[in-house]
Design brief:
By secondary structure, this protein is α+β, with helices and mostly antiparallel strands. Helices cover 47% and strands 23% of the residues.
Length: 769
């Protein structure tokens, strides 16, 4: 600034050496110029450079709000803003040196009231013959408002530029009628087409080929419609070759006919937003899938907890969830029973065709069989045309309609128990998450099977304990009658062994007699009872168990050619049979028999249960025997004590003795009692029974001792006969163990007790004492 000021001071003295005197015509012209300047709110000045004087028109003072004290160039110069003074001096010197055609400068100055305002000054220098400036005439005006507007416009443009830079990657204008395309510099750089001819084709060349069809369709739809705005998202290839997502927005200009003439719009780089959206969508999809997986596993667990005694609802829930989550054609659950593969659960399409192939032997010709044999997940995609696919899987794929399949085994404690599988109609491989999920379902199926097994074992154990308790309760409540025990054993054997028929039989010493029958119809019961009494040598399950003193187990009695009751078995409708002997001191005293309508063996727990029932039946029989023997012995002892008491009290009279014998120890005959007395010559009878008994007694009254009647024989030989209870019993001769006859057993079974059984045995001569 100081340097420019010094140059101006040096130039002024030199200019004073050349004085110019205005002519009379100049004044008139100055007046006209003053009028023109007033019209444009400017003032005219005439600077006599040589003399250092300056003339300001009235317009200068009024337009620039200057005080009248401004008279000289130095006065004016002193009012220029210090920051603008250097530029002012430099512009004057440049014009004085003839470097510019005219002098022009905008600067700030201090107006009349001390405010800073803007002025714009113009001037033209007049020179002498040597080219030195001797005079400069020009104008000055106040451009403060103009500067304010210009500054506001500049700031607005800067804001627009910044906003455009932040929000868009460029501005474009497409003139549809001329086919020309205008792009801002930023758009050119973004599209890397700065050196190319700006045409819509150059733009289209950068649109991703996968998005171009949708972009063209959006443009065509815009042209056909009456919309005034256009918006579309698509990918473009940037200058560096990388792909970016852009948002294209434009305002449509149409002519009077509604045809599109121009599109003015902007493109914004939305790559990051798209990446965020893709990531958000991926995270949302993963979260949704995870939630679906968790929901599915929770549903299976809920099904497990709600089906403690049955795995089928769990299996059904598992295959439904596998098919829903995988989107497959079908899903199956297979179980391994021995060497056969069964399919208890299947969900989806063409399941009837699939069921036609099961059950089937376990082998490596199916994907499920291969998974069970290899003990790992196996999948094939594609199935058809794949030389590695098992042969049966190819056949299934053609019949059912799938081309990708997966199976994973179900393993419990190192043992394969089944498999779960699914299949797609297309050749779509199953991803790692699906493989992990189907393994989770396999684990849940194993848990369900194990839970049901434990639950059933616990329930069966409780049922066995309850059944044992029930039998013991019946034994304790029926000490003199074994029939209720046989009845409860037969009923429990049928129920707990899940059988259709149960038969409890007892050996009477010669034949096997039926004592309890449950589960069959009346006709079936008639056919079963026809087989009894049964000889021990017969070819039946009961007779075999008796002969062998061991459990006899037959999976299908109709397949046993030696079985002697095929007709009865077929009519009663049983196939799988089980016979368990009742053993006492190594001897078989009876058999428990159960049978089912379906072939197959009873499980070990059921066999052990029948063994327990057999032991309890033996205990019951023994208890009844001991109870009856104890009761008989007590009765005899009581009767003897009463007779001895009477004898002791009547030493001179035998009649009271006979009376007490007749009352307490006499024999039952026709419902009455009779007393016999030998008077040395005749046997006298005295009866205290009813009329019928008295009539019978009179018919045999006064029988001689030599008579052949039983009473005479009893007196002579002191032996009992039918119809008379001896006063003293003798032990029978040793013989092979023999139980009472079935008739006696029937009496016991019908609640008639041990006394009648012994009476019958005495009458038949089997027991004498």
């Amino acid at each position: 600034m100081a340097k420019g000021e010094e140059r101006a001071r040096k130039a002024l003295p030199r200019a004073r050496q050349h004085r110019a005197v205005p002519s009379p015509g100049d004044s008139e012209r100055l007046e006209l110029l003053e009028l023109a300047m007033r019209a444009i709110n400017e003032g005219v000045y005439d600077w006599d450079v040589a003399n250092g004087k300056i003339h300001y028109s009235e317009g200068v003072y009024s337009a620039l709000h200057l005080p009248r004290s401004v008279k000289t160039p130095m006065d004016w110069r002193a009012r220029i803003h210090p920051e603008d003074l250097a530029a002012y001096d430099e512009a004057i010197l440049a014009h004085f040196r003839n470097e510019t055609e005219r002098f022009e400068c905008d600067y700030r100055y201090r107006a009349r009231h001390g405010a800073w305002r803007w002025a714009r000054q113009h001037g033209i220098a007049r020179r002498d013959a040597h080219g030195r400036v001797i005079r400069m005439i020009g104008s000055t005006g106040d451009i403060t408002e103009f500067k304010r507007v210009a500054q506001a416009l500049k700031e607005s443009q800067e804001r627009l530029a910044l906003a455009t830079q932040a929000a868009t990657e460029g501005i474009y204008e497409w003139n549809v009628e001329t086919g020309s395309l205008y792009l801002s510099e930023r758009a050119k750089a973004f599209f890397a087409i700065s050196g190319k001819r700006l045409t819509p084709a150059a733009w289209n060349a950068h649109v991703h080929r996968e998005d171009f069809a949708a972009y063209r369709a959006a443009i065509a739809s815009l042209f056909k419609s009456r919309r005034s705005e256009f918006e579309h998202e698509y990918r473009i290839r940037k200058a560096g070759g990388e792909l970016s997502w852009i948002l294209d927005r434009a305002v449509v200009v149409r002519d009077a006919a509604g045809r599109v003439t121009r599109l003015v719009g902007a493109v914004a780089d939305i790559t990051q937003r798209k990446l965020d959206e893709i990531e958000l969508r991926r995270a949302r999809d993963e979260a949704t899938a995870a939630l679906e997986r968790q929901t599915a596993t929770a549903e299976v667990l809920a099904s497990i907890s709600g089906s403690m005694a049955d795995t089928q609802p769990v299996f059904e829930r598992i295959v439904q969830n596998v098919r829903r989550l995988f989107g497959t054609r079908f899903a199956v659950l297979q179980l391994l029973h021995g060497e056969m593969v069964e399919m208890p659960a299947v969900h989806g399409q063409a399941i009837e065709k699939l069921r036609e192939h099961y059950p089937r032997p376990l082998d490596a010709t199916t994907v499920g069989g291969l998974a069970m044999l290899s003990r790992q997940a196996v999948q094939y995609a594609p199935v058809l045309g794949n030389p590695a696919t098992p042969a049966a899987a190819i056949e299934f794929a053609r019949d059912v309609g799938f081309n990708s399949v997966i199976f994973t085994p179900m393993i419990h404690e190192g043992k394969v128990i089944g498999a779960i599988g699914a299949a797609h109609p297309g050749a779509k491989p199953f991803d790692d998450r699906q493989v992990a999920l189907i393994k989770t379902f396999a684990d849940q199926a194993v848990i369900a099977i194990e839970n049901v097994r434990l639950f059933n074992e616990t329930r069966e154990a409780l049922e066995r304990q309850t059944a044992t308790a029930e039998i013991l309760k019946v034994i304790s409540s029926s000490p003199s009658d074994v029939q209720p025990v046989f009845d409860i054993i037969g009923a429990l054997a049928e129920r707990l062994c899940v059988a259709e028929v149960s038969v409890v039989s007892r050996f009477d010493g010669e034949l096997i007699q039926i004592v309890a029958l449950h589960g069959v119809s009346d006709e079936g019961a008639r056919l079963v009872r026809r087989a009894f009494p049964m000889r021990p040598e017969d070819e039946t399950v009961t007779a075999r168990a008796f002969r062998n003193r061991a459990v006899i187990h037959i999976a299908d009695i109709l397949a046993d050619l030696d079985y002697g009751q095929i007709g009865a078995a077929r009519a009663a409708g049983y196939r799988g049979c089980l016979g368990v002997p009742m053993l006492r001191e190594g001897q078989v005293i009876g058999v428990i028999f159960v049978a089912r309508k379906t072939p197959g063996h009873f499980d070990d727990a059921q066999v052990e249960l029948l063994k327990t029932f057999a032991d309890q039946a033996v205990i019951a029989i023994e208890n009844v025997r001991l109870f009856n023997e104890t009761r008989d012995a007590l009765e005899r002892q009581t009767a003897t004590a009463e007779i001895l008491k009477v004898i002791g009290s009547s030493p001179t009279d035998t009649q009271p003795v006979f009376d007490i014998i007749g009352a307490g120890g006499g024999l039952r005959v026709g419902g009455g009692r009779r007393r016999l007395r030998f008077d040395g010559e005749l046997i006298q009878r005295h009866c205290k029974g009813g009329d019928r008994c008295q009539a019978r007694c009179r018919s045999t009254c006064a029988t001689g001792s030599a008579s052949g009647r039983a009473s005479s024989r009893s007196i002579r030989g002191q032996r009992s006969h039918r119809g008379c209870r001896p006063t003293r019993r003798q032990e029978p001769a040793p013989r092979a163990p023999r139980l009472p006859s079935m008739a006696a057993g029937a009496d016991v079974a019908k609640g008639r007790g041990g006394r009648r059984h012994r009476d019958h045995a005495t009458e038949s001569g089997h027991i004498s004492r």
